[in-house]
């Protein structure tokens, strides 16, 4: 029998992720304000929980407290069950784990975001950094504890035979840990990130690289966003664990685990409806007034190194230098959500983005023309408004699991935007035919693509945009989640 808890309070379906569907801020008079969490994972999953698929009973989402305000909220609810004390969790039952602050900082900031994220997105320069010494061993031990805390909470909350869907690089050890105590569960792991090739992944200490792969192979199914990421994961298993690979199945340590593809898309009708709300329209009107008659080159990102915002701005500058005929006729609107500012690399990166935007302004700006407008804020309606106005949408990450902005932008684009898309975004495996595909390191090619986008004949851009919007809506979150559930339930 399952350990702990009453049978009736246990869930048949559980989701585990570091960031939950809700995060908290402390208002002026000290009260807790709930807001939607950010990032691709939450955008995809938050919708799903609003209407748990038929017959599944209750869905329980297990996540961590990320800030002091989150910790206060978690402590105010018995067992961290936020839904039970009336917080707006967007329809989900949410258990928020209140972990020791230092342990969480080491697991989340030092290991997950500063090490694993960098390795998976090829952000380290191997000749310069990183070096894994004693402090990394200490941080890794915290990551192991953090994963154990999740595994324990899930083991306690899961009904016999329940399905558990574990998300992302924060929780790579959970599947194997959970299987040890609860072999009755059906366990899936989904990676919202890219995966790196073995020769790069192996820069991690050998024991750590092997632990991550073995931890994930504790699942019954492994999900990825794009074919290249699943293939890279299998290559890592072959090279580092000596696993056998047959088609999409990895066999190691007496277990065979299938890697499956679920290219997450957007719910097009819902997003279009959201974009037609008065708050978005009002912001679109403000932005239109700011831009005047200028055509708009738009981007929307977290302030994130892998998003390649600096090279994007550099490309825009090259475009303006090469095409004086566009001066006074175009504006670059950059919407950036503040992200991971506990890490110095992210603070420095944000400063670099601000510096470059200011340089462009100094070089080209006039009394009557604003060549670039940078907004660092987490105003989702404002970003959505920017996307509706885009003539060219720039999505040029160094690497990205999927990049939902490419899909959201094409679905809400009123003008039939031209999509300039990095070949290293997961979305490119579906959108290459109608996007202008760029090498994200090639600034000149990106500048040329901006120019090609701005000068494309209206009929062609509308035709391409229409096809891209169709692709973007092909696998909306509910279908994406439903397909994973169906596969995990269908057995080995
Ligand atoms: C990506 C990751 C998510 C993460 C999000 C935001 O989409 O795959 O797991 O939640 O970025 O990052 P953050 O560190 O703010 O949660």
From TrEMBL:
SUPFAM superfamilies: UDP-Glycosyltransferase/glycogen phosphorylase. InterPro entries: Glyco_trans_20. Transmembrane segments: none annotated. GO terms for cellular component: cytosol. One of its GO terms (molecular function) is alpha,alpha-trehalose-phosphate synthase (UDP-forming) activity. One of its GO terms (biological process) is trehalose biosynthetic process. Belongs to the glycosyltransferase 20 family. This is Trehalose-6-phosphate synthase.
């Amino acid at each position: 029998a399952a350990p702990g808890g009453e049978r009736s309070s246990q869930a048949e379906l559980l989701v585990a992720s570091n960031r939950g569907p809700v995060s908290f801020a402390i208002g002026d008079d000290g009260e807790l304000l709930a807001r939607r969490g950010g990032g691709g994972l939450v955008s995809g999953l938050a919708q799903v929980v609003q209407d748990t698929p038929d017959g599944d009973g209750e869905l329980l989402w297990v996540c961590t407290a990320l800030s002091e305000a989150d910790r206060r909220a978690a402590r105010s609810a018995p067992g961290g069950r936020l839904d039970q004390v009336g917080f707006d969790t967007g329809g989900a039952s949410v258990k928020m784990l209140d972990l020791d602050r230092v342990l969480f900082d080491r697991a989340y900031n030092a290991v997950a975001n500063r090490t694993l994220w960098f390795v998976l997105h090829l952000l380290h320069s191997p000749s310069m950094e990183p070096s894994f010494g004693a402090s990394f061993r200490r941080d890794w031990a915290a990551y192991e504890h953090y994963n154990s805390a999740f595994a324990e909470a899930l083991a306690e909350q899961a009904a016999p035979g329940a399905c558990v869907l574990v998300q992302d690089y924060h929780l790579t050890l959970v599947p194997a840990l959970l299987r040890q105590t609860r072999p009755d569960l059906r366990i899936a792991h989904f990676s919202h990130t890219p995966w790196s090739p073995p020769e790069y992944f192996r820069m991690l200490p050998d024991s750590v690289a092997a632990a991550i792969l073995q931890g994930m192979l504790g699942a019954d199914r492994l999900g990825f966003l794009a074919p290249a990421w699943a293939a890279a994961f299998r290559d890592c298993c072959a090279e580092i664990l000596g696993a056998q690979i047959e088609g999409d199945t990895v066999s190691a340590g007496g277990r065979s685990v299938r890697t499956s593809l679920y290219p997450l898309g957007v719910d097009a009708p819902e997003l279009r409806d959201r974009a037609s709300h008065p708050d978005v329209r009002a912001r679109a009107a403000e932005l239109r007034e700011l831009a005047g008659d200028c055509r708009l080159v738009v981007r929307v990102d977290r302030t994130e190194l892998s998003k390649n915002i600096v090279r994007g701005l550099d490309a825009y500058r090259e475009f303006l230098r090469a095409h004086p005929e566009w001066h006074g006729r175009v504006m670059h609107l950059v919407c950036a959500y503040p992200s991971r500012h506990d890490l110095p690399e992210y603070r420095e990166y944000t400063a670099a983005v601000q510096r470059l935007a200011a340089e462009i302004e100094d070089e080209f700006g006039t009394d009557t023309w604003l060549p670039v407008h940078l907004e660092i804020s987490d105003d989702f309606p404002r970003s959505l408004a920017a996307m509706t106005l885009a003539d060219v949408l720039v999505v040029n990450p160094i690497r990205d699991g999927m990049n939902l902005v490419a899909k959201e932008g094409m679905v809400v684009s009123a003008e039939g935007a031209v999509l300039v898309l990095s070949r290293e975004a997961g979305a490119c495996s579906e959108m290459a035919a109608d996007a202008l595909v760029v090498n994200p390191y090639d600034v000149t090619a990106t500048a040329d693509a901006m120019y090609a986008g701005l000068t494309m004949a209206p009929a062609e851009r509308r035709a391409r945009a229409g096809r891209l919007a169709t692709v973007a809506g092909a696998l909306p979150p509910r279908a994406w989640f439903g397909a994973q559930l169906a596969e995990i339930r269908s057995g080995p």
